[in-house]
Amino acid sequence: MRLTRGALLVAAGALAPALLFTTPAFAAGTAPEAVVAASPADGTPVDQMSEEELRIAILRILADEDTGRGVTREANEALDGTVEDMREFLKTGYRLAQAEDDRVAIVRIMGDPDSGRGVKREATKALDTNTPEALRAFLETGYRLAQAEDDRVAVARILADPTISAALRAAAEDVIDGTPEELRYFLETGRYEVDA
């Protein structure tokens, strides 16, 4: 069955662009049905999908490079099962398996020695809430914002050091109210470029 799944995955990947760009929906500027069907969380009636459409939707999930172990395990079990198993995976199993993978990712973030207080606090809140939506929200936006909070504290500590150069002080003052990306860049690279 694994060989067949691999062949289906290759075929789905090769045919998907051709099928998507030749549909009337693409020409009309709306989302093609195949793209909508591949995203089970958007309310597409999974019960109306054919066995082939179900397989393609699951294979697209498996083809995503960010797919974790839990989703991969559950998707493979669904593909090895019946049509109803595939429907059930797309309706609820995918969401629950993604939550399992998200939980693992958050625990890894908390275990990272470079994670600061803000990140650990927000990660703990997400884990305590323990809903798929809270876990996903932390990974998509909460982590970035909590990291920015920790980065601002790190920049403030640099500013509190009386021995830093005037150039580094000016650069830190410029970035302390910056975006999360600007703060991260300053701490990882920018501060070393100033004093180079």
TrEMBL record:
Residues 1-27 form the signal peptide. Pfam families: ALF (PF03752). InterPro entries: DUF312_ALF. Keywords: Signal. This is ALF repeat-containing protein. It comes from Streptomyces iakyrus. The lineage of its organism: Bacteria, Bacillati, Actinomycetota, Actinomycetes, Kitasatosporales.
